[in-house]
Write a structure and sequence with these properties.
The protein has a two-stranded antiparallel sheet with strand order 1-2. Strands 3-4 form a two-stranded antiparallel ribbon. The chain has about 425 residues and is mainly α. The mean pLDDT is about 90. The protein has a domain of about 300 residues. A hairpin with a 2-residue loop joins strand 3 and strand 4. Helices cover about 65% and strands about 5% of the residues.
């Protein structure tokens, strides 16, 4: 493929993702998560009242610390007083996440086809596009992509700035969602493995700034302890819960393989009701059955394939994971080690978390979980190029079909809802 054709197909992938993402954004059903963010954003934009903490977290763990979740809504509203303005910023951040990762894949492989295949897996994926949704986890795509991008740079050079951006990515993610702990564990493993060069000046600088930004968050805690503990003692939540309850732990690990498959979230798999066909009851019911059968069948098949692909990867890199394994020989090997760090961190968090993790709790490793399929494709493309081109073409078409159906009617989306027309007023 020449450069011109690559750019055409690349733009087509971008355009298709943009259309589907816009549909998700426009048809999102307003619920508790959006109302929390809108309240903080409008209070800051209208009255200058900047809330120093984020949304209420799952499992009674209180509110996420810091101003960032207020900032990402308030600043767009100050520029354009429309509910669509924070969605525009979110879309820009998600696009930036994809472009950062595409840059990594470009330097790792340099093959136009591999970059296009990655675009299908990442940018068109319903796991990704269904998160064009105004809530905290959606912003994690950018910070997790920035995390990987800086890891590649820190492997190549000892830099104050790359270290600063890397630590910023972890700290900023922590202000959006507690799942940032996964990124922290990944960074610690990568440092232990010796594949990143840390500039301690950059670490200290970001920690000082980040800590200072939390002072307004810490001040009200003495008067309102619910900011850090929302009645957790009254629930069956405790550290190390994954060691006691096996099913929630296994479910957490299964998300790793689901992200690399078409076994999507419950919202997309089981809550697409085709309500626009409600006037044709028989047709609607039949279409629901056929659609769910297709989703479940392909989901089961692809999750099995994902497990096989991951097994191939672990077998290939098992000798590169120890501290004494020596320096990495290529960006491809670095990405494989990075992938292992994501899986290891997911296992650790699955063990220590006091709650049962759900898919939005682990979206932060989505970009990592799809990498095994990229490695498998790159390794076998030369000998089976025709099959991969056909296969990824079918995957792209399937992803688009799922996105179009889900954006018009699924758990969090409905064609009868127009987000920009929602009449929000401060309580």
């Amino acid at each position: 493929m020449n450069a011109f054709r690559f750019r055409v197909v690349f733009c087509l992938i971008l355009g298709a993702g943009f259309v589907c993402g816009s549909l998700y954004a426009l048809h999102q059903i307003v619920s508790f998560d959006q109302l929390q963010m809108l309240k903080k954003g409008f209070e800051a934009a209208t009255f200058g009242n900047w809330t120093p903490y984020g949304n209420l977290s799952s499992g009674g763990l209180g509110n996420t610390p810091g101003y960032l979740s207020t900032f990402v809504v308030a600043v767009p509203l100050m520029a354009w007083e429309s509910l669509l303005s924070p969605m525009v910023l979110l879309g820009v951040l998600m696009l930036a996440a994809y472009l950062l990762l595409d840059n990594v894949i470009k330097h790792a492989y340099g093959d136009y086809w591999i970059r296009l295949f990655f675009g299908v897996l990442y940018w068109l994926n319903p796991w990704f596009l269904a998160e064009v949704h105004l809530w905290n986890p959606s912003y994690l795509f950018f910070f997790s992509a920035l995390h990987l991008w800086t890891v590649v740079r820190m492997n190549q050079t000892h830099s104050f700035w790359f270290t600063t951006v890397h630590v910023f990515a972890v700290g900023a993610a922590a202000q959006m969602h507690f799942s940032a702990l996964i990124l922290l564990f990944m960074s610690l493993y990568l440092f232990y493995r010796g594949v990143i060069r840390v500039h301690w000046g950059g670490v200290v600088a970001v920690i000082l700034v980040w800590s200072a930004s939390l002072i307004p968050y810490l001040a009200p805690i003495t008067d309102n302890t619910s900011l850090i503990n929302n009645s957790i003692e009254e629930k069956d939540y405790f550290l190390g819960r994954g060691l006691v309850y096996v099913y929630p732990f296994l479910k957490t690990i299964l998300y790793w393989f689901r992200f690399d498959s078409t076994f999507f979230s419950k919202q997309l798999m089981f809550l697409s009701h085709f309500d626009w066909l409600s006037a044709y009851g028989g047709l609607q019911s039949s279409l629901q059955i056929v659609w769910r059968t297709i989703l479940i069948s392909l989901g089961v098949i692809t999750i099995g394939f994902s497990i096989i692909v991951n097994r191939i990867l672990w077998t290939r890199i098992k000798d590169s994971l120890g501290r004494n394994a020596g320096p990495v020989r290529s960006i491809q090997e670095l990405l494989m080690i990075y992938t292992f760090s994501g899986f290891l961190s997911l296992v650790i968090c699955g063990i220590i978390t006091p709650i049962s993790l759900l898919w939005w709790h682990v979206l932060i490793i989505y970009h990592t979980a799809i990498l095994p399929m990229v490695f498998f494709t790159a390794q076998n493309f030369a000998t089976h190029s025709g099959k991969f081109k056909l296969g990824y073409g079918c995957v792209a078409g399937y992803f688009l079909a799922v996105n179009l159906v889900s954006a018009h009617g699924s758990g969090r989306y409905s064609y009868v809802h127009i987000f920009s027309e929602f009449q929000y007023s401060l309580p």
